[in-house]
Structures are given as structure tokens and as C-alpha cells.
Specification:
About 30% of the residues lie in helices and about 20% in strands. By secondary structure, it is an alpha/beta fold. It has a seven-stranded mixed β-sheet, covered by helices on one side. Bound molecules: iron/sulfur cluster (SF4).
């Protein structure tokens, strides 16, 4: 999530606001929303203050390099900063639902905490209400969103009401869908277009349970997947390519083909070098280039079972050329970078590039700019 240094009018509410330009305030203003008016001059600032004094209590001025009109932001308490929850111009949009989790994955990019952060449900609903344009896809992430129970359903209902054309993608380990009450709270009567992104790290319990550091997780996740299928929900399986997973990837691909043929697709994902992945570096840092044959074999198996798949967070130069057409630009805009070596690479436009923190962590493979001649097959 972006943090932007700002100057803010005094005594603003520490909650969600939409950023609007002074010129467009009149056309966007609504009594049930809050607005930060992006000011570039003393006149705009004085004008905003005058409007507020005259009774428009839901507006306040803001000044900050890097803010954009339409941003959905929330001020950080005791700091001259805002968090940008959503930005219209981004290719990927997601809302953070909770930092709590019931798993403890070796490569977790967002290590869980225990504190009660139930207020994030209200913030997410507020963000959805303040969003000016409906994004084609909106992700809900965590932590583990299923821990929110009815809170998650409230967010889904708000999205359906405010943005009926938006497809929702919920990143969940799926384990709590083995609990009937959770299933009823979240899935009963759910008709909106939703896709559940569920990680599966092995074809057997000891591999998956080891990766998520939780005994019994494999059985619960498989139970959750079957529940989603029974409720007619779309599923994307997610496989993060760390060493313990790569060692069994062909077997996992065959397991999916034989036992979970109903999944919409399988996402094979490069590991994000941050959070627990740094602490478990010896298991998480891989050179994908050295696993090319395993990736090709697993992809062949998925194709044999007619299961669509894609690669995410994997630069093209880390993959065998036979898999380039399956690779997607998937890294969220605010954490996406390219290395200096990428300048002049013939496939940069279609390459996912790297996570911004690759220098503190690692690259998924040695970066090797592709020459134009190599792209002709
Ligand atoms: S050199 Fe850079 S742009 Fe080219 S394929 Fe590798 S990571 Fe992508």
C-alpha cells in the first residue's frame, strides 16, 4: 500500500476520503461521502476552508506530491501521511481485510498478527462506497479474510450494491470453509461474480501442512475447495514456487488434474521476497531458471488434464521460452519495478518485472535481457 507525505487541514476525521480536485468538487460532492480537496494554490486552500466553515463539514484540503484525483485515502494518525487504499489508474485493485491468519506460511509476505483489526471491515466498506469508478476486478486480501465471517459477507454485499459490474477475487486459504457456520455466513445466497484464490502447496498432507506450518491444513483446504465447488463458486488454485513445492510440482499438477478438475485455473507464482520468505530464505529463494524442466513438465500435465494455468510474478527471462505465452504481468503497480538490466530488453512490455524489494531480497533468476532475435520462434 502506498504511503504519501501530505499537508492536511487541521481536525480532519481519521477515516476514508476520496481525493477530488477543487474544480471538480461541485460535480462530485455528496453529503454521505468525505472529500479531500487537492489544492495547488493558496486560493484553493482558502476557498476550501471557506466552504467548510459555511457548513460543508465533509470536505478538507490536502496537499501532497503523488496524490491523484479519485484516490481513496485514509490519514495515518499523528503523522502527516495518508495511505492510498485504492487508485483508479492502477491495473490491479485490492483491499486489505485483516492481518490475522490461521496459517503461518513459510513465505508469507504479510506476517500475521494477533490483534483485533475488525475495524478494517468498516474501512473496506467505506472505501467501496467512496470509489468513483467501478474497477473490473477488486481483490480482497489479508491475512485470512474467512476469519471475518459475516464481516466478509458485508463487504461482498457492499461491493455488489455499489459496483455490480465488478468481479471480486478473494485470497483465502479456504480452510474455514470446512466449517458449516462459516459456509452459511459467507456463501448462502451469494450470487455476485466472485472468484476464490486458494493456495495449494502439495499433493499430500505432509508437504502442504509443512509449507503452511499448520497440521491438518491440507484436509481442511481440500474440504474448503469441495465446498466452493458445491456452491458453484469459481476457484483459482495458487501455487507459490518455493523449493519444497517445486520438488513435488509435477505430482501436485497430476493431483489437481485427477482430483480437482473443476478449478478454473492454476496460478504458478514466483515468491515475493519479503516477510517470512526472508526469514526462511534457504527454502524460499530459488533460481527459477534451474527449475525450467520441472515447470515445463508440470505445465504439460495441467494441459493434459485441460486445466488452464498461468505464471505470475515470474519474469520472462526466468522461464523457458515455451512458457512465455502463459506468463502474466501480475505484480501490483505500487510494488513493481524493473532492474537496470531490463532497459533495452525486447520483451519488457510483456514481462512482469520484479517486486520492488528484490534488492533487499532476491531476484527469481539472474536477469538476462532478451534480444529481439530470441523472440522469433
Ligand atoms: S530482462 Fe527484465 S524485462 Fe527482460 S525478461 Fe528479464 S526481467 Fe523481464
Amino acid at each position: 500500500m502506498r504511503r504519501i507525505k501530505v499537508r492536511l487541514q487541521a481536525q480532519v476525521e481519521m477515516c476514508v476520503h476520496r481525493v477530488v480536485t477543487y474544480e471538480n468538487l461541485a460535480s462530485e460532492w455528496s453529503p454521505d461521502l468525505r472529500f479531500f480537496v487537492l489544492v495547488f494554490s493558496a486560493e484553493n486552500q482558502a476557498g476550501t476552508e471557506a466552504l467548510r466553515q459555511s457548513g460543508l463539514a465533509n470536505i478538507a484540503w490536502i496537499e501532497g506530491k503523488g496524490l491523484q484525483e479519485g484516490d481513496i485515502v485514509v490519514p495515518v494518525r499523528d503523522k502527516q501521511e495518508v495511505l492510498v487504499l485504492l487508485r483508479e489508474a492502477d491495473a490491479h485493485h485490492s483491499l486489505f481485510m485483516t492481518n490475522r491468519c490461521n496459517s503461518y506460511c513459510l513465505m508469507c509476505s504479510q506476517p500475521p498478527t494477533l490483534g483485533d483489526d475488525g475495524w478494517l471491515v468498516g474501512e473496506a466498506i467505506d472505501a467501496v462506497r467512496h470509489l468513483r469508478k467501478s474497477p473490473p476486478v477488486l481483490g480482497l486480501t489479508g491475512g485470512e479474510p474467512l476469519l471475518l465471517g459475516t464481516g466478509l459477507r458485508q463487504v461482498l454485499n457492499a461491493i455488489e450494491q455499489e459496483h455490480p459490474t465488478t468481479h471480486v477475487e478473494i485470497l483465502t486459504n479456504g480452510r474455514l470453509f470446512s466449517n458449516r457456520q462459516v459456509v452459511s455466513d459467507i456463501l448462502d445466497g451469494l450470487t455476485m461474480p466472485a472468484r476464490w484464490l486458494v493456495p495449494l502447496y502439495g499433493h499430500c498432507n505432509f508437504v502442504h501442512d509443512f509449507v503452511v506450518q499448520t497440521q491438518g491444513a491440507f484436509d481442511e483446504t481440500i474440504g474448503g475447495l469441495l465446498t466452493l465447488q458445491a456452491h458453484g463458486q469459481q476457484i483459482q488454485l495458487r501455487i507459490v514456487l518455493i523449493e519444497p513445492v517445486l520438488r513435488v510440482l509435477p505430482e501436485l499438477a497430476a493431483f489437481i488434474g485427477r482430483n480437482l478438475p473443476f478449478v478454473r485455473e492454476v496460478a504458478l507464482m514466483g515468491c515475493e521476497p519479503i516477510g517470512f520468505a526472508l526469514a526462511n530464505r534457504e527454502l524460499c529463494e530459488v533460481n527459477l531458471h534451474e527449475w525450467g524442466e520441472t515447470l515445463e513438465r508440470s505445465a504439460r500435465t495441467l494441459r493434459r488434464f485441460s486445466i488452464p494455468y498461468l505464471f505470475m510474478n515470474a519474469p520472462l527471462c526466468a522461464l523457458p521460452q515455451s512458457l512465455w505465452s502463459d506468463a502474466h504481468r501480475s505484480i501490483s503497480d505500487w510494488k513493481n519495478e524493473y532492474a537496470a538490466e531490463c532497459d533495452g530488453c525486447a520483451v519488457k512490455e510483456s514481462c512482469s518485472g520484479l517486486f520492488s524489494w528484490y534488492e533487499r531480497g532476491w531476484k527469481p533468476a539472474p536477469i538476462r535481457p532478451i534480444k529481439q532475435a530470441e523472440t522469433i520462434v
